[in-house]
Amino acid sequence: MYDDHYGLSGRPFQLTPDPDFWFDTATHRKAMAYLGYGLSQGEGFVVITGEPGTGKTTLMGHLLAEIDRERLNVLKLVSTQIAADDLLRMVCAGLDIDSVGMSKAEMLSAIERGLHTVARSGRRTLLIVDEAQALPIDSLEELRMLSNFQAGGYPLLQIFLMGQPEFRQTLGDQRLEQLRQRVIAMHHLAPMDTDEVEPYLIHRLSCVGWRGKPRFTNDAITGMHRWSNGIPRRLNQLASRVMLFGAIERIDTFSGHDVAAVIADLDSDTAPLRSIPTRAFEERFPEREAKPVAVEALRPAPAPEPASERLERRIGDAALNRRIGELEQQLQQQDAALRRVLTLLVDWVETGATPSSPDIASLHGTAA
After folding, report:
1. What is the Cα–Cα distance from 254 to 260, expressed in whole angstroms?
2. Cα-flanking dihedrals φ and ψ of residue 253, to 5°?
3. How many whole angstroms separate alpha carbon 325 and alpha carbon 347?
4. Contact at 8 Å (CB) between 239 and 201?
5. pLDDT of 4-51, one tens digit each?
6. Distance between CA atoms of 64 and 49, rounded to whole angstroms?
7. pLDDT in tens, 215-232
8. C-alpha distances in Å from residue 18, one per residue of 53, 79, 164, 251
9. CB under 8 Å to 116, separation ≥6 — which residues?
């Protein structure tokens, strides 16, 4: 909806990670430097952590768009509590190895042969594990064992681990001492600073044909950073709702007041239901008699109305109220005219006086 109103070719603030919208913040630039360093070393582990929504998936998508696939064979796994054996089977699948019926020893042997085959083709193999915080200790140890495979003194496999902040605590486990010794680079993605928010918004808008409309005032930018805490996904969520609000209200420049209104709607959408403190109420107002609770009160509360529908309803209510006001004013005018006509008619009947020209004109006007 708002993309049509502002003349954009697409949605600039979608929540799905998209490398085409890559924005080079200070923390993402540093992460890319560490990943590039890791690739140049061709061995060991590189660990990237960050809060949900800080752009880990977008970062990896940007990296994969930059690397030379003719020189690097990339395997990507998304971890969801994968046991050690299942992890090996997923690596086998990435190397086009049929692991059905294989034991663990057979899978390890097949993976080593597969890595040698890739190496003979002139490529190295990179394994990227996303959501690594969900991996059990045994699975992480299995990854360390895979990193031992070599050919002519050169490692056959390099591993990048992407995870949420708690993954750093997992790495601190004493059972992972040998894995920690093989981590050659580690970086934590930090939230954006306040002065990065406006360039970020303009960059994403420019990717879909932005021509200067809409714009954001300084207090709007400050409010958006405060609510999102500098997390890109939360900023996208807020910016998308702000622009929807702007399309409905015909706003071309967003102020801090506009952003605050949208934030209030967002917060109300996610606010938890509050229970009524019955005992405290009775103690404060003992004179009130306890009454049986109606059946309707026990029914679940209706789902909160989405903010977009609430905005549209408000606009519709405002237009309806204006129309009602116009009709009431028109009725008042007609009532006053009718009283004037009745007065003239009564005078005419009682006195027999002929109405003056203006009075006759008013009679005709009222009749019309």
Report:
1. 10
2. -130, 115
3. 34
4. yes
5. 888 899 999 998 888 899 999 999 999 999 999 999 999 999 999 999
6. 18
7. 999 999 999 999 999 999
8. 12, 20, 19, 27
9. 151, 156
